[in-house]
Amino acid sequence: MTTSLEALAAWVDDVAALTRPDRIHWCTGSDAEYAEMVRRMEAEGTLTALNQDTYPNCYLHLSDPSDVARVEHLTYVCTRTEADAGPNNHWMAPDEAHAKIDALFEGAMRGRTLYVIPYCMGPLDSPLARCGVEITDSPYVVVNMKLMTRMGDAALERIEREGHFVKGLHSTGDLDPNRRFIMHFPEELSIKSIGSGYGGNALLGKKCHALRIASYQAREEGWLAEHMLIVGIESPAGETHYIACALPSACGKTNLAMLIPPESLPGWKIWTLGDDIAWLHPRDDGRLHAINPESGYFGVVPGTNARTNRNAFDMITHDAIFTNVARTATNEPWWEDKKEGEPAIDWQGRPYDPASGPAAHPNSRFTVGAKNNPVYTSLSEAPEGVPLSAIVFGGRRKELAPLVYQARDWRHGVLVGAGVGSETTAANIGEVGIVRRDPMAMKPFCGYNFADYWAHWLSFESRLSNPPGIFHINWFRQDKDGRFIWPGFGENLRVLRWIIDRTEDRIGAHETPIGYLPHAEDIDMQGLDIDSDVMRALTSIDESQWQAEMDAIEAYFDTFGDRVPAALRDELAAVKNGLSNVAAKAS
Ligand code: GTP
Ligand code: SPV
Ligand code: MN
Question: Is 251 in the active site?
């Protein structure tokens, strides 16, 4: 036994009896252990060293071609009653789910090593952090968890002190999609995942624990677990505001969290606290505070270049793991839009041939520790987190949604979040580019019924005397030829400035039925050449398109029946009413 905690030792024994590994390894989290794992994977051929002169300590992993993204259709929330999981989740009765997945775990680790990974989500000394233990037979999971979480001895010490932890059981299995399941048991605080070695399916601290299980715990305990980046924005005068921003998968969180201010806005600084997940807690000061439970990034590679995001580009030139990118003839990693080098070998290890699709998989990823980021701030370790000035929702919408707008108040803000729609991306296996409802960017990640989740969000109105302002952004409007009309990336700082000025009551706005829109002159356009027609399109709304949108949101709410909070229905009715008044006036 390698732990003083009886419950943990017993669980590891039970899992070993079921899965029959050859060996058991308790992860310490040391650098030597990481190096040994890398060596082992190189020996078995599951990790390849990249060019060590230009990309020191960088490695490449190519996953099974059927295993390249999250699998929402195979992801289940197994609460006792189906209604508690809600129409937003796939559901299976807990007994049936355990039986089904345990049958697949039987003997699954024969010939393999069982790794026990104790980890802590959040700073090790934070009262807001929560611990878990992942059991896995994948050394790739071990090295990724080392880069992305506080993992090993220190976490185990805390777990032994507290006496409880979230249980996550993972095996790569045989990678047959017919025997792949990601199952969550929120009432038991446990997760079982088999048949995938990829990202959110396998790194159980991330989406499975820190969002699905944590969102369930957060409702019981009075906080929120959200799919949000956390960023600090320092003005030339030295005033720093913290903003948390929820965007669906592959819609710009990592890039916004480490944005580089354009040269025409001198003196502004950006600090990254988190790029994917935020845990939000009301505190005695009446404000909402945020911590990032993770300590590393699992970020989208394609699109990263020196012009779009120099920080990200530099961050992944050392001590990084790449998954499913291509390689150049000199063994450097390569991806679409890298803007330098040429692909020689594609993400499946074949000689590159443009006829067989992109060289790097569209959902190819990098894994790096947060301290690789040139604009990392040690505030990421602050046990109490940072106070939020604004919460920002958003989506990927080629039409309809303006560049930015502000909700009237908290309640209206909850409607704005609950109504988010976004085009699907390669982060999930399935069709790409279809608009779907993705409330609070949590469609794939909320561990309980969305209607109850919206009620929980609404309850913060009375818990916060000084709530953050709520906003909505869209970087992805397109012209008729499918080109983005907003330059995005560093230029997004202009929008963040407007948001901050609004929360500080420094500027006015144009009131519309959907909320406050910017006066075009209030967005600082110095040094940016954008057609005034384009700016007008980005800062106005088409009322009839918005009427159709509100109808679609209402129809979506209807699928949740009576559980939808009355206050949310009232907010929706008020917006609809406002839109029809405008339409009546116009005709
Ligand atoms: P997950 O890790 O899946 O949760 O994604 P994310 O929300 O962190 O998205 P990320 O920042 O990795 O961006 C995803 C893709 O969108 C990348 O290809 C980026 O290059 C692109 N992108 C990010 N920001 C912008 C922007 O402002 N404008 C445009 N046009 N593209 C952007
Ligand atoms: C996402 O899909 O939102 C991600 C990648 O951040 S994964 O970790 O695979 O969920
Ligand atoms: Mn994400």
Answer: yes
- pLDDT per position as a tens digit, 395-404: 999 999 999 9
Domain shared by 15 and 140, yes or no: yes
Give which of 294, 279, 174, 295 is closest to 228, Cα–Cα: 279
- Provide the CATH number for the domain around residue 528: 3.90.228.20
The CATH number linked to 210 is 3.40.449.10
Same-domain status, 513 and 442: yes
Exposed (0-12), middle (13-18) or buried (19+): which is 162, by Cβ within 10 Å?
exposed
Domain assignment present for 587: no
Q: Which of 221, 250, 283 is the last residue of a domain?
A: 221
Q: How many domains does the chain have?
A: 3
Considering the domain architecture, whether residues 200 and 341 belong to the same structural domain is answered as no
Domain annotation covers residue 330: yes
Note whether 303 and 285 are same-domain residues.
Answer: no
Per-residue confidence band for 1, with pLDDT thresholds at 50, 70 and 90: low
Q: Is 427 in the pocket of ligand 1 (CB under 6 A)?
A: yes
Cβ–Cβ under 8 Å, residues 168 and 135: yes
Work out the angle at residue 440's Cα, subtended by the Cα atoms of residues 434 and 445, and round it to the nearest 5 degrees: 80
Among 299, 247, 292, CA closest to 271:
292
How close is the Cα of 255 to the center of ligand 1, in Å?
6
Mutate to test the pocket of ligand 2, among 148, 249, 367, 428 (most ligand atoms within 8 A of CB): 249
Residue 247 alpha carbon to ligand 1 centre in Å: 9
Beta carbon of 70 within 6 Å of any ligand 2 atom: yes
Least distant ligand from the CA of 200: 2
Ligand 1 in contact with 303 (CB < 6 A)? Answer: yes
Give the atom of ligand 1 at the shortest distance from the alpha carbon of 491.
Answer: 27
Catalytic residue, candidates 58, 131, 251, 446 = 251
Determine the Cα–Cα distance for residues 556 and 543; give it in Å rounded to an integer.
20
Is 55 a member of any domain?
A: no
Residue 55 in contact with ligand 2 by CB distance below 6 A: no
- Distance from the alpha carbon of residue 340 to the mean position of ligand 1, in angstroms: 19
Q: Separation of 488 CA from ligand 1 center, angstroms? A: 10
Number of the ligand 1 atom closest to the C-alpha atom of 476: 30
| Torsional sign, CA 328, 331, 336, 339 | negative
pLDDT band at 469 (very low <50, low <70, confident <90, very high): very high
pLDDT in tens, 141-152: 999 999 999 999
Residue corresponding to tokens 């399109």:
537
**Residue 373: CB within 6 Å of ligand 2?**
no
User: Which of 190, 206, 221 is at the close of a domain?
Assistant: 221
Q: Which protein residue has the closest C-alpha to ligand 1 atom 14? A: 250
**pTM of the predicted structure, to 2 decimals:** 0.98
Domain co-membership, 361 together with 460: no
Range of the domain at 206: 6-46+71-221
Residue 41 domain-assigned (yes or no):
yes
Same domain, 353 and 423: no
Is the same domain home to 484 and 519? Answer: yes
Helix (H) or strand (E) holding 390: strand 390-394
Block residue for tokens 């396998």: 202
pLDDT band at 336 (very low <50, low <70, confident <90, very high): very high
d(CA 370, CA 368): 6
| Binding site membership of 361 for ligand 2 (Cβ less than 6 Å) | no
Same domain, 507 and 442: yes
Asked whether the beta carbons of 280 and 290 are under 8 A apart, the reply is yes
